Amino acid sequence: MTYQAPLQDIRLVLEFAGLGQASATDLYADCDADLVDSVLREAARFAEERIAPLNGIGDRIGSKLVDGAVVTPPGWKEAYRDWSEAGWNSLSAPVEWDGQGLPVLIQAACTEIWNSASMAFALAPLLTAGAIDALAHHASDELKAAYLPKLVSGEWTGTMNLTEPQAGSDLSTVRTRAIRQLDGTYRVEGQKIFITYGDHDMSDNIVHLVLARLPNAPPGTGGISLFLVPRILPDGSLNDVHCHSLEHKLGIHASPTCTMVFGDIEGAVGWLVGEENRGLNCMFTMMNSARLGIGIQGVGIAERAYQQALDYAQTRQQGRAGGSPQTSPIIGHPDIRRTLLLMRSKIMAARCICYATAAALDRANRSEDQEERALGAELAGLLTPIAKAYSTDIGCEVAHLGVQVHGGMGFVEETGAAQHLRDARIAPIYEGTNGIQAIDLVARKLPRSQKALSLILSEARTVSDEIALRDGAQSKILAARLAQVADCLERATKYMRDMQAAHRHEDALAGASPLLELFGVCIGLTGLARLENARRDDEGIASLAVFFSNQVAVYAGALAESAMGGAIPHIRAL
Amino acid sequence: MTYQAPLQDIRLVLEFAGLGQASATDLYADCDADLVDSVLREAARFAEERIAPLNGIGDRIGSKLVDGAVVTPPGWKEAYRDWSEAGWNSLSAPVEWDGQGLPVLIQAACTEIWNSASMAFALAPLLTAGAIDALAHHASDELKAAYLPKLVSGEWTGTMNLTEPQAGSDLSTVRTRAIRQLDGTYRVEGQKIFITYGDHDMSDNIVHLVLARLPNAPPGTGGISLFLVPRILPDGSLNDVHCHSLEHKLGIHASPTCTMVFGDIEGAVGWLVGEENRGLNCMFTMMNSARLGIGIQGVGIAERAYQQALDYAQTRQQGRAGGSPQTSPIIGHPDIRRTLLLMRSKIMAARCICYATAAALDRANRSEDQEERALGAELAGLLTPIAKAYSTDIGCEVAHLGVQVHGGMGFVEETGAAQHLRDARIAPIYEGTNGIQAIDLVARKLPRSQKALSLILSEARTVSDEIALRDGAQSKILAARLAQVADCLERATKYMRDMQAAHRHEDALAGASPLLELFGVCIGLTGLARLENARRDDEGIASLAVFFSNQVAVYAGALAESAMGGAIPHIRAL
């Protein structure tokens, strides 16, 4: 089973997120339907023909460290070269650095397509995009001129060097050191772990962004600076940085996860990005864009797993469904149909969330109006941890269900269903674990996002009101559920505010994960209900909202109770 | 991190399941506390010292097909020999065939311990136990005498040969043929797939139980017979059966999953077990005991994953929890504690369900009273699909959470957390997928288990009433929740009966999986609440019930709604 980009679903959700809506404040005036259509169709073609077939090979062979350099699987290098030469890397990059300046929303749709085709492949450009963001926002003009054009074209790739053995979720303990030289450059020394595409053979240069500490820097996160450390120096010589070893991982075998050594000999040459001791700030720029990208990975891998399961369910004959005299394809059995609908409705919900996050970023970047830009930024900030965590959680769940639909064949590696489960498993972990996302949501984002929260709630209620006006019991039930979910979310977010006002942080943090899930359910159901309301002649789309409402959003009340459960004491139960 | 059998938890749940309770109808009069204690302690010692250390080796090296024969990983053979020589294989086997005749309940506790130590290792005896059951119930005296003693001692192992490429969940399409010979034996010809331990080097002989079709047998399941086909014939010659290939699987690498060829040359020699065309019946005996065993695998792998995650959470330093001035172990963070409590409380709930199933089997087998035996059998029948599916689902979930607690290290294979997730993934699939278990529960078991259902509901309500009598808001809340969960289960099971009475089978089947989960939540909460009520001075145990009630059982109302959602139409949404 190969991959076919679900262009109809993607177009529908793009439209829901604002693309192609004629309005006075149209952010997307430069993107007519023909342009969007041709971008999507070309992306689909490249992904289906060139990337998707590499996914299994990438898993079986993986990237290898040979004589100190990483060799990617057969076909990987050529596919990446053709992909970047076709301009795919520069889609939403700034025009001033030779990017195409297209909206993040269109980028999001393409990112989904690349990740469905191969998560391991799509990771490389995802990190380059983060590096472009960080440099475009924080680097000096000289650094920009020297690095951005080749990063934008994809001739060079970027990395994020944050983690050290003792410094994972908590970066305050970073130990890598950087010492300023007379010529204004820095010498960087230290070891970084879990560096995705830290070394590989697909591009001419690798541009490392490295968190390090200056001598006498203040302790903690306020003493960390960001440096650009290229694999190959401007004079063409090799910098003092190399890949020491590769991790042996559960999944995404083709994506090399490197332990990088900086300054084994005389110190790696680096340049400061942004101000000294403000490195974490610069990194956050990069991380926010990367976090949405990882959320979209969740959607992408889930879609791939769903397509494979659906195909199997339509062809595998087993048992007699509904009293049929002949054996039936297993999709005839209610429990299999239920499983497939659970998969598909959750994918569509997560797609709505991720695309809405991308649209919020466009609002922040593209709007002419200052207030609109501020609201867009607030909304994007609030939505990012939800997009990341909710979508990667459903990525694992859908891949898990995909294996289940295959029965025994799902456990056999040749089938490919298990690879999706293995690949999907990283996404809730990297770029900040989903637990960290939930903490970010409750402790950092919620207190400063009252407008964005109001917007989310009022959108749910508006859609609910519209549907409630229609005839038919099913419409009333859907409308009532959506209103109820919004009420649950309002109650649970108020609880969080109250707890924080009372300095009862443990009570708030203990419910952070269920609160994040509740946010996901509310925004997802709002999206699906909007689609249903707009296309209720389309039985397929309409039934997704109804199913998600009855089988997923039905848990909203319990999620809210769970979120408001209060602190978990340090008990002896563990 | 190695494994330590959680003897305190196990003893507690054994007690709750009836062991050691002094009563007039004590089924376990022959098992005094000292005996139980020494069995558990010796099992723990063997598992911890001899089996657990092999688990990682088994995963990395796996079983291999070398010159047509399966070679198990280093140390496997010796461990199995010492294990069976110590008498562990014969624990609950019939005394008349040299078994020790101990209760299934004690066997269940040991099965959990073996599976925590290594799922792949524990699978071999699990299948032997199924073969012993089938032969003891259905074979001729001659066959019993020839095969049972060596199967009971563990010198020989057993297999279940059901699946063929076209015949998985639906065995009606089995094609393997058997032809009666003049000497009363049969010649068996055909290919079977997914045969666990179909070949290996750990025992002197392998006793295959094979489903096959006689010439002119009626079509469908009524035309399938069961045959005993030994690897080595009574005269010492090799039978015409061999392993053609091994599957390359996601997990349990040390457990060889064989494609078996019977009768490549002149037909494998086999003996009929039970009557002609009644093979599926005999196989069901075997499958029911195996299904409980697989449920216990879910508990076992979850316990192993939990212990490893807990250990990591207690040692890994990251971030400052609760405003601490120093970095804290990550268990200090509320979201990690929440995750660990979710893991532990679900394990204890599933342990309660599995041990209750084992106790029901003891009631069916050991009671003096005819009515009690019938009730035990009915209860065991109803509980078996719940024990299998609920426990293996939480097995995957807990292993998934275990990876998450490890952060990036969880995705690195050397850590070992990912192996538990890969190993756990098979359990919801084999011995009847969890979807099949749910169908079995709704379509077959529920309609004939009114007494057993009443027992489950009245037990929940009795415990609730007892707790409600106590002082304190927390007791009232727990009691109310348990009563509510019982009400939900009663309502949802009534819905299933109504649908079936109205021949609306699709409406019933569509809700089978959530109904099964609701059963699990009700029986699990009843168990935890009983433990809480008996040991409320033990903060650790008491808080498990409260947490499970507030964070898991809180979803019971929604599960009931989901179960009663009605038929899923054949829509175009897929």
TrEMBL record, chains A, B:
InterPro entries: Acyl-CoA_Oxase/DH_mid-dom (IPR006091), Acyl-CoA_Oxase/DH_mid-dom_sf (IPR046373), AcylCo_DH-like_C (IPR036250), AcylCo_DH/oxidase_C (IPR009075), AcylCoA_DH/ox_N (IPR013786), AcylCoA_DH/ox_N_sf (IPR037069), AcylCoA_DH/oxidase_NM_dom_sf (IPR009100), Diverse_Acyl-CoA_DH (IPR052166). Residues 277-443 form the Acyl-CoA dehydrogenase/oxidase C-terminal domain. Keywords: FAD, Flavoprotein, Oxidoreductase. It comes from the Bacteria. SUPFAM superfamilies: Acyl-CoA dehydrogenase C-terminal domain-like (SSF47203), Acyl-CoA dehydrogenase NM domain-like (SSF56645). Residues 41-155 form the Acyl-CoA dehydrogenase/oxidase N-terminal domain. Its EC number is 1.3.99.41. Its cofactor is FAD. It is an enzyme of class 1 (oxidoreductase). One of its GO terms (molecular function) is oxidoreductase activity, acting on the CH-CH group of donors. Residues 160-264 form the Acyl-CoA oxidase/dehydrogenase middle domain. Pfam families: Acyl-CoA_dh_1, Acyl-CoA_dh_M, Acyl-CoA_dh_N. It catalyses: 3-(methylsulfanyl)propanoyl-CoA + oxidized [electron-transfer flavoprotein] + H(+) = 3-(methylsulfanyl)acryloyl-CoA + reduced [electron-transfer flavoprotein]. Belongs to the acyl-CoA dehydrogenase family. Involved in the assimilation of dimethylsulphoniopropionate (DMSP), an important compound in the fixation of carbon in marine phytoplankton, by mediating the conversion of 3-(methylthio)propanoyl-CoA (MMPA-CoA) to 3-(methylthio)acryloyl-CoA (MTA-CoA). This is 3-methylmercaptopropionyl-CoA dehydrogenase.
